[in-house]
Structure formats: C-alpha cells, structure tokens
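Appendix B. Raw example, untouched.
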Amino acid sequence: MITIEFPRNTPTYIGYIEMALGVGLMFGPILGSVFMQVLNSIMYTFFAFGALLTLGLFIVLGGLPQNLNNPAIDEKFEIDGREKEPQKVSFVMFLKY
C-alpha cells in the first residue's frame, strides 16, 4: 500500500514502518511487565493489550486513504478494441481479498 500511495517517498515510509516495529519490540515487553504488575493478572493484561490493539486498528482504518487508484494512470484503456474505464478499488476492498 505504501508503494502505491507514496511512490516517490517509498524508502522513507518503509523506514518509518521498520522504526515502529523496532520500537514496539523494545517497549512491548516493558509495557507488558508494567501492566502485569499493575493489574496483577495475565487475563487483565491480555484484555488491556487487546483494547490497545483494537484502538490502533480503528486509528489505522480511519487514516487510510479512500482508494488505491493512482490519479496519474486514471485514464481510459482499451480491451479487445473497446474503451474501458479503470475500476475504482478502495482500501477496504483490498483488505477484504
């Protein structure tokens, strides 16, 4: 999705993703141990992290662009001599399949 949405800045945004993964791997166990000490239960720690991940899901879904279509290639094209318009594909459609 990054290469479609940001073709000129792809290395920068892939670097951001790698940085976020590294930070998550560093601070995840620390945050988990803090939750475990505060909540005194593995079950409540599990639910707390589930709530955080669900919140993150809604933030990501709210921030996704509306479509996967590149405006530079949004022209009509020919198939079997007939002119067709490109089909619009949304990110939600992309995630479903």
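End of appendix B.
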